[in-house]
Amino acid sequence: LASCDLSKADLNEADLSKANLSGADLNGAFLDKARLRYADLSKTNLDGANLNKANLHGAILLEANLTDTNLRGADLSGANLNSTNLSYANLTEANLSGADLNGATYNTHTQWPNGFDPVAAGAILKS
Fold it and tell me: How far is residue 24's CA from residue 93's CA, in Å, rounded to a whole number?
């Protein structure tokens, strides 16, 4: 599924564990409760996608565009979020334990889980 156009696709509750979605366009896709464990989402466009309560444990999101993405309650434990764009993303109630956020960018509108310190995790605030 690398480089596929899946924009606005309804993939709610789909099992895409270990799938190669690198470079795919998932703009506005519906991935509520989807299973994306260890999936490769490098350089994927997830702008405006809905990943509410999705399981992204161990997923590779290197340089992914997560602008305005709903990740509320998502499991991002152990995920690689290096150099991702998290501007306007909703990460409330997300599990970020062990997630690598080095070089990830966010803005003042990004919503983090209570008590989470994005700067200590390596994320960079962009104005």
Answer: 26
94, burial (CB in 10 Å: exposed 0-12, middle 13-18, buried 19+): buried
Tens-digit pLDDT profile for residues 16-47: 999 999 999 999 999 999 999 999 999 999 99
DSSP 125: E
Q: Which residues contact 119 (CB under 8 A, 6 or more apart)?
A: 125
CB atoms within 10 A of CB 111: 16
- In this structure, how many other beta carbons lie within 10 angstroms of the beta carbon of residue 30? 18
Look-up of token digits 């161990």: 58
Q: For residue 102, give both structure tokens.
A: 């080095």
